[in-house]
Amino acid sequence: MEKEVESADGSEELRHKKLGFLPQKELIFNKFLPYADGIDGESESFLSEIKLNLSRAVLLRELRPGVVTWTGRLIRYINLYGLKFAKEDHIKFIKLYYDLIVIPGLEASMISLFASTLSSLLKKQYLISPTELQLPWKPLYKLMKTILDSPYEDVGLYYIPASMDSVLRTVVKLCRDYFPIEATEEMLSEWRPLLCPFDMTMPMGISLFAAFLPTKAEPKNHQQSYLLWFDEFMGLWKMCHNKPSWEFDLLLLFSRLADNNIGYINWEPVMPLMFSKILNNFGLPVGYRNQRGQIGHKFDLGAVVTWIVASLGGGSSCQDHLDALFKAINSYYHPSNVGTWHTKLNDFLRRLPATFVKRLHRERSNKKSWLTPIPENAKLTEMDITRFVESVLPVALLAMFSRAGAYEASIAFHQLAQLRPELVIPPILERLYSALDTVTEPHRLTATLQCLVSVIRPLVRGKAYPEGPSHVLPLLMACLPAIDPNDIRKTLVTFQLVTSIATLVPFVDCSGAISQRSDLTEEEERVCSATAGFEDFVLQFIDRCFNLVESSSLEQTRLDKAKNVEKMTREESLLEVGLSSTIASLAMQCSGDIFDVALAKLYSFVGGRAFEPHVAGKFAAHIVGSVAKVNTAKVLQTFLPNLLRSLESTLASDDILEEERQEDELMFNLLLLSELMRCPGTFLLPFADQLIRVLDRALMLKAREAYLSSGTVLGNLLKSLTTIYPTDFRSVAEGYDRALSEYLPIRDWGKPGDLNNLQIKWHFPNKEERFLAEKLLKRYLETNLNKLDEHADQINTLSREELQRTLNHTLDCILGAGAVLPPWQEEPISMAESSVRLALPLQFSHADAEHWKISFSNGKHVRLTIAQTLFKVVRHLLSSGSDDTFALFGTISICQMLLFHYGVLKEDFETHQKNFQMVKKVLGSNLIGRKADIRALMIDRIQLQHELRVLESAFTLSVVTPTMHMILKDLVQLATSQYSEVRSRAQGVLSYLQRQSPKAYQIIMEDLLNGLKPEASHEQLKGTLYILAEHSSKQRSLLVMHNWSVVKELWIAVARILPSEKPSIIQLTNASLPHNS
């Protein structure tokens, strides 16, 4: 069923009344989740547990495991709910973690953990002013000196994590704004003796000042702040022209000072010198002999652009100097000029506009803050903005065609177009139309398309550039020839352009509005007339995509076709993603009439045809699946009846089940069916009986590719029936099929979403869907488990192929229905003695008791039954010395999913998160902020929040129980087994488990010690050493665990390993020595 969620009232008064306190900064996206009503109670319970147990652990001085465990819970609380606590609690948390990190003699790993937590608490600095919080600076200085200048690290007596330096510097950066006002004078007294340009202590002194000196002071306190040192430091900087190493840190300090005190410092006296040093810093060659400037320590470009942007406006000459700088370096951006300087110049071009937009956002936002306000006379004027854009634009236009500068230029254009689209967009369009007419220079077309994508939103919005919308249709039609199977890069950039436009523009024929409305401007009339071409474009675009699909067909050339399992290349995988996402965006934004025409054309191309299933078939199936998610009822009614009839007819013969290799027609039909199963489960219910008849036969297929595809059908069907996800990503929530006299879609081109009227629609599994999911699990999963039980008990032995097929289908069921398979309810095994409660009995709102009601016949617990069966299968495979590595791979994957999968895979979440960030970079607005995001981006961010909650719930459920103990023993056996690939995969699962449950290793210590005994085989020893070493992180290595009884046994066992001639054993043994030192 679809569940629509209206935005909740977020007024401060109501929140204070409901929660009993005013939250500092809660995550706004939680209130749009379909189970939002239960989140306040959930967070309140979580926070009270954290406060109770964390304070108790601190009072009892139990840093490990008490404080460490509940610190991890606090970090998860912030990830899930934001800073959802009262200001008083916020300040107490900050003071607590500040006091914890400065405890004398605290081990480095704990300092790193507490410092990271403190950084998370201090990240939103505008929430707490220095009048409400003060922190002493000396303990932090002593800590940095102790940690970063430790004489024991070099000799191996003290291990410091690699990230410690950056973590501590981040803490200093966030804490220095809360140092007392007299701290500046105290620091000068402490470190001024170090400032001698002829002494090696000078870099240390300047580095300390750059890190610790506070620069955010109220104007009335400037005499006690930067004015105490500014003239002195500026004199030192002017005096040294030999590029000393400390100049880098001094510039960082000056740039931060300028940024925090815009309008209060006169930089005019040093302006010429600063720009001369900046130009010299680029190290550009001069003349024909490539004579370069003086080599020395380089500036940080972030500091350079920060200082330049902070010095602009207020009548300063900074813009004149910036114009002169760009004139001096202009020719070095030419595509023919490539050298070592190129990276630095492009980076400068990328950072400068972004920093300028950041400053403008700060000046024009209404966010309440204690930070020093910028005086009105120092703020950027419209003329300042125009001059800045006119200064940077020529360089960006030159850089866009260079070998490595198109990406940086596109980012610069994206920022500049937010400021002055009427200046930025026309020259890009001019170059694009020129490139489209040129056949011999495809790289120019690719570069201009990439840059156009970065400015597409201001173009379609047409607010500051009214001619922009009139270019949309000509651009779409003109870029169709760029879809070229022989030039993948150009095709992908074209897909990106079409996707960006489709995401922003409703594809509705508005030409009828000219005769129906009298309120249209001349420009609107022109655009309305042009929209009559939308249908033609959609049909031509689909034709181009069909040509791409047909040209991507993989011809089988090997004689041994039965063993020829083809995989797509990286380029084909990228094309597959680009093709499906572009079609999905177009279909989502089309009006009903255009959608119907496109669907008919799609069916005429795909319906009844048999594509080869490895490349072209995947492309075609993904196109159909993408369209099906938009208007599920129509697409299923068009494709599914005939497809199911065809499959039933094909699978009716018993002979076909036994074939070693299936025909392309059957394989493509299964592939197409698996994509159609990704639709909301509500629409699949009417086809349930037919689907079950097809699955009954398809899951019995003998050919590996065929039964894998059948399992994907089952997994996708279960996932659609049981998971929670948004169903509508249109740019306008109300839809487009309304009368033109009431609603004019062209006025919503590029329109931002409205968080107060988002109208997000969710698929939330209803009773019928859960009933069907339970029926499928009993029919297929329970049956497979019975087969595996009989095989393990040697009652009815399965062949190698049957065993692999049964294990794969078991895995498909867990992957599909993981969201509704409840965790086993067992008493946790105590892993550590503690004075506080370590278990967290937290019930997440998205997984209520009703949601987790699925079970087997006679009420048997699903996950528990799978685990018990798997234990027997693994024991049977290992005891019989089976060489069936595919079966062993299957058991490892099932173990992993049993432990960690509750609806969302971590890899899928991380990929989704990266894709969201990429789209936000292109279609977001740094100038306005989150409020300018389009509706699709807002919904995508809310979906990410739901997925994060599912992942965190899986983490919370990862407690060590007797069943987990049983699975862990299986994994250790597999991780020390005969085959290297099997060992590697099992070790990967154990490594992930160690990150989830750091104390779980204690229950497998006996197994690990057995693997180090003299009588252990080579494979056992090698596998055990890999488990112990855990090369991904020294901190997680079992050889340095904070448990002396465990460490004693392990170190002695490692020391007693008999000498080996095997290079791998020698290498692993040596790798453990640094840990033991």
TrEMBL record:
Gene Ontology annotations for the cellular component aspect, listed alphabetically: cytosol; nucleus; proteasome complex
The keyword Nuclease is assigned to this record: no
Sequence ranges assigned to domain Proteasome activator Blm10 middle HEAT repeats region in this UniProt record: 322-817
Range of residues in the leader sequence: none
InterPro entries per UniProt: ARM-type_fold (IPR016024), Blm10_mid (IPR032430), PSME4 (IPR035309)
Domain of life: Eukaryota
Molecular function in Gene Ontology: peptidase activator activity; proteasome binding
Alphabetical GO biological process terms: proteasomal ubiquitin-independent protein catabolic process
Keyword vocabulary terms for this entry: Proteasome
PANTHER family: PROTEASOME ACTIVATOR COMPLEX SUBUNIT 4
The name this protein goes by in its record: Proteasome activator complex subunit
Organism annotation: Daphnia magna
